[in-house]
């Protein structure tokens, strides 16, 4: 969420994450022991009215708690360091968790820990902060999901090395979920390229002997500097970003994906800004979700490995009909260009994101391009 208004998306989403919403620690405790919960109360209430589970990101040390530390790129003067006294951290986490027990689904214990613009403390302190926060949160709300500090810069060996060290020294022993930032090198690159980052993160964790569920929780600090996508490419990329999350759930350890972000115009791909209707890209994501309502994902694959032309991607599902029978269905798309593919057995309809549908027959050749299509037996 990139808004502090409490307004929620008016298209279908599954969860919201609070970070660029004026809810950093420095916003909530501007002076030691003095709390201002007004913005977070508004956001939590808005999420609950919309039926959306909320993930709160704990980070952004107030200036009073680390006066000599470097500033983060935020107007309230948040510091990119742990507090000088960890008692301040414990007190804040306790106040937060007790106030929002049962109202926040999950807590992420730092936005991007392996980027010095967000965290420049040492590893031992980061692990200890994670351990302490996990204990405090679980005591206040045993059902809360604790998400380890976010790990970005995973295109680089330095970023992956930091993740591996955090794993090796036991950081992931103190949380339920790992947080990674899955994003393209550039916003103009195909969304499918993030799967290489997921694979690198998974392999790094595997080498360290840890296998937590993985949530993709954001992007790179530099995203606001990248060029906007045109409207048609935005539709393609928004829907395929959603699909790569599903792909990663089958072929990686990815169990949740957040899109960055809702509520701002200053990004390459905009879904909605407060007070305005959803963009065509957002509505296309909503259409994709309608296709997959109550679907069960079976498999995902790409190219010749699944007897399709190179460059074609596919996820297979079973989707319930009105009688509750689960019917074979699939989504196909390319990451570039077009490809001729045969309709699989049992498939009788092809649906497009613009709402149109045409009958098809098994074995019929259909052209697939960069905009996903849905094929079903229903």
Provide a descriptive summary of the structure in words:
This protein is 28% helix and 18% strand. By secondary structure, the protein is of the alpha/beta class. The chain folds into two domains: 16-291, TIM Barrel; 296-376, Immunoglobulin-like, CATH 2.60.40. The protein has a six-stranded antiparallel sheet, with helices on one face. α4 (123-140) links the parallel β3 and β4. The longest helix has 21 residues, at 231-251. The protein is globular, with a radius of gyration of 22 Å. Keywords: Glycosidase, Hydrolase. It comes from Nonomuraea marmarensis. It is an enzyme of class 3 (hydrolase).
Write the layout of secondary structure elements.
Blueprint: E1 16-18, H1 25-28, H2 38-49, E2 54-57, H3 86-99, E3 106-108, H4 123-140, E4 145-147, H5 157-168, E5 178-180, H6 194-207, E6 214-216, H7 231-251, E7 254-257, H8 280-291, E8 296-302, E9 312-320, E10 326-334, E11 339-342, E12 349-352, E13 357-359, E14 365-368, E15 373-376
Parallel strand pairs: 1-2, 2-3, 3-4, 5-6, 6-7
Antiparallel strand pairs: 8-9, 9-10, 10-15, 11-14, 12-13, 12-15
- Domain unit count: 2
Strand content: 15-25%
CATH architecture of the largest domain: Alpha-Beta Barrel
Looking across the biggest beta sheet, what order are the strands in?
A: 8-9-10-15-12-13
InterPro entries: GH (IPR017853), Glyco_hydro_42_N (IPR013529), Glycosyl_Hydrolase_39 (IPR051923)
GO molecular function: beta-galactosidase activity
Keywords: Glycosidase, Hydrolase
Protein name: Beta-galactosidase
């Amino acid at each position: 969420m990139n808004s502090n208004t409490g307004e929620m998306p008016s298209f279908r989403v599954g969860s919201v994450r609070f970070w660029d919403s004026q809810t950093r620690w420095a916003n909530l405790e501007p002076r030691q022991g003095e709390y201002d919960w007004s913005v977070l109360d508004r956001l939590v209430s808005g999420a609950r009215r919309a039926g959306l589970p909320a993930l709160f990101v704990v980070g952004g040390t107030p200036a009073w708690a680390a006066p000599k530390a470097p500033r983060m790129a935020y107007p309230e003067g948040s510091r990119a360091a742990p507090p000088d006294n960890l008692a301040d951290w414990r007190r804040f986490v306790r106040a937060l968790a007790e106030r929002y027990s049962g109202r926040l689904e999950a807590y992420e214990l730092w936005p991007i820990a392996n980027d010095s613009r967000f965290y420049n403390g040492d590893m031992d302190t980061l692990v200890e902060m994670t351990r302490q926060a996990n204990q405090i949160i679980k005591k206040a709300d045993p059902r809360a999901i604790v998400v380890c500090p976010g790990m970005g810069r995973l295109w680089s060996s330095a970023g992956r090395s930091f993740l591996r060290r955090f794993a090796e020294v036991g950081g992931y022993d103190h949380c339920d979920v790992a947080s990674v930032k899955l994003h393209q090198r550039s916003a103009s690159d195909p969304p499918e390229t993030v799967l290489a980052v997921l694979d690198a993160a998974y392999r790094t964790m595997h080498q360290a002997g840890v296998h937590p569920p993985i949530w993709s929780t954001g992007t790179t600090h530099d995203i606001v500097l990248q060029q906007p996508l045109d409207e048609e490419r935005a539709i393609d990329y928004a829907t395929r970003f959603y699909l790569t999350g599903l792909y990663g759930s089958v072929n990686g350890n990815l169990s949740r994906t957040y899109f960055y972000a809702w509520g701002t115009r200053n990004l390459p791909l905009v879904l909605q800004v407060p007070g305005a209707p959803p963009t065509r890209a957002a509505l296309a994501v909503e259409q994709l979700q309608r296709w997959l309502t109550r679907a069960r994902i079976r498999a995902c694959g790409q190219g010749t490995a699944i007897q399709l032309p190179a460059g074609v991607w596919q996820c297979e599902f079973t989707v319930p009909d009105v009688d509750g029978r689960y019917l074979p269905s699939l989504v196909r798309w390319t990451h570039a260009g077009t490809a001729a593919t045969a309709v699989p057995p049992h498939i009788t309809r092809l649906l497009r994101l613009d709402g149109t549908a045409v009958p098809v027959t098994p074995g019929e050749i259909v052209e697939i391009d960069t905009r996903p299509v849905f094929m079903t037996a229903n």
